[in-house]
Structure prediction request, 90 residues.
Amino acid sequence: MEFNINKQFAAEAEVLKVLGHPIRLKIVAGLCTQECNVKHIWECLNLPQATVSQHLALLKHKGIIEGKREGVEVHYSVIHPLAKKIIAAL
Prediction:
């Protein structure tokens, strides 16, 4: 028996997969409460800047967050409605 996976379920599963990493989950949870720049994020997480930047790049690539340039800094915020719902449910 073959069944067709709905595109919406596939997209939702992708968001769940991306948020399944503890660092990314923590980043998104923090960004749901306030917009932050990368320096603030890596200082809060006590992780190397390169590690945080890699996770931010993936979150941005998957459409979960966006970055807005303000002068020399980029401030990140959560834009994906499902990611916001998941964090709220947790």
Notes: The first strand starts at residue 36 and ends at 37. Residues 7-89 form a domain with the Arc Repressor Mutant, subunit A fold (CATH 1.10.10.10). Helices lie at 7-19, 22-33, 38-45, 49-61, 81-89. The radius of gyration is 14 Å.
